[in-house]
Amino acid sequence: MTCLPLEEDPFTGSQSKSEVTPSEGYFEGKTGVTQVIVCNLITDVYREMISQRRCFMFTALFFQDYVRFIRWDWAGAVVSQRFSWKDEPAPLEVFLWRVSHLSDAGRGHDTSISQPTAEEVEAAKKRLDERARELARIRGDASVKTRYSTDDTFRKFRVVDNVDHVERFFVASEPIYRSIPEMGRGMVGYEALDLQTDKLVYMKDTWRWGESDLCDEGLTYRRLHKMHVPWIAPLVCAGTIDDQKTLTHAVKNRPWCCKGAEPKAHEHHRLVLGALGRPLREFRSTKELCTVISEGMEAHQAAFTRARILHSDISDGNILITDDGHAFLIDWELCQKVNDNGTGDYEGRSGTWVFMSSAMGTKIKWHEFRDDLESFFYLLLFNSIRYQVCAPPDLAAFREISETFFQSAHYEGDELCGGTEKAKYLKAATDAPFFPRHELEKMLSAPHASLIEEIRLLFRPAYLVGPDLEEAISQAKRNLNLPWSQDALLDHLRSSKAMAEVFRQHLAMPGWREGDSGHDLFPDWGVPPEVPVWCKWTPPTSLRKRSTPDSIPASNETPIPAPAPEHRIRLAISTSAPPYTPSCSTDAPAPLVHGIKRARDEAEMDCDGNEGGDHSAPSLKRVRPSPKKPSAIPAQSSQRPEGGC
After folding, report:
1. Sign of the torsion angle spanned by Cα atoms 23, 26, 29, 31
2. Where is the composition biased (Polar residues) (predicted)?
3. Domain span holding position 199
């Protein structure tokens, strides 16, 4: 339970009164202080939900003699009206009594997770120890790092596949990956022991959109394998968990709902892959880095042409390096079906801001193949300059340049925009304003620096206009033996053939350095300074589907969520069913509903469960608030709150 001064109540839309009606304004406060409080509260609660593996959670927010009840789930939150617990103690008494008498499921615990036996824990530890030794050998580490925490952190996870309906069990310790920040889909990844095969697998646990036309990730993997797409991890199983779904969206049409972006239904989902890999940043040499990225492009192209699927979220977390130095292109949950016109099926942003194409950052548009291709280029550039054997002489200045290039963003009205620096870089003929070739050659091998520069020039025609375009066409005619029109030049971006050929030629060149894996120059590189606390983008609520028929035959695919990409997001306030407002007291306050949700940009607002009974909201911490004010409005209910135990 959190206690704040009365004047710091973040859920008062008017400075002159404690509550407002739907026509009077927004539910949450507008001051900088209340914005920070809201962001801190969201961050802390969702962090608790992930660490305690909760599907939903109740908290009480005290303001001296007043209190509000809040019910949180992965779609948002419901906030009750503020009332005096001294003058009206009955509602608080009944609330606490009911919460303390709820079952584990009633308090939001994930009932698909159980305690493994001692034998199962030992079997998992054995396989994880073997994995740790193998990774130490691959990395050339002198010491072996443990892949698990204490024995009491192990849990048994149940997954029932959506297709064959077979029940499988997996044992895992602490996650090896958590979405940062925690908000969004609450995505966590585990190295887990498959109890059926006694092998280690990768298990992805997330809360995905439950009412979406996006593709089901498990079915996507099945289609990719059916169409023989290379460099795709084998699928073990994928399924929705025990009908665990959010409720916040259920009251969005109630008269007391605050206005703003609507919360979306989410459902709990697990996907298990039968292979493990290293993060892309753990490349052993820059040649391995470039090889793996080129193989990821090969998988992306094959998925586009054979399976008619566009990945739509090319980022450093979505390519893994196998133990034998090859690629796995993973994380297909934001993928789009390719329409007959060759673009994705939705208008709107998806992807990770750092790697998003300049065109996607500056406007809302249909996702095209060349947007993903440009993301592959930024993936190459980002990892090439960030992980270095030797730091540049002026590291602070180099970092500032890098952050400006990859992460700068600003709001134009309600839209988050960016990518102008990327466009400047791509348009430059020579002496690019960021990372010019002569500077790259000081940090990288000659073929590596040349690779980056030649790929950059492939994208130049896409961002040129007027005399600059005419000059580029002339240069292409003279020096590159390429076609003479912009449209013809852009043909080279409608497939990865030209870019793959540049990779092939440069990887065959002599001069690559051996064992030049570098250390992270920016280990504390966090969220963009002008972007909300979360930075992962997902398709916004305004996603508009094309009316043309899909290129993929109809199937029984389940919709998949999108994130609020590291991946993706804007904070907004909406509605939900009131939390446990006591129905036995005629004096119980009429609830005000306040849904806290994101229209993702990616970042990610996700959560997992909490263990224990009456856990309260953690104390507030200082985190950077979103520059865009949440839009929400409370509405006072004319009826008694529904629900109860």
Report:
1. negative
2. 12-21, 549-558, 634-645
3. 112-276
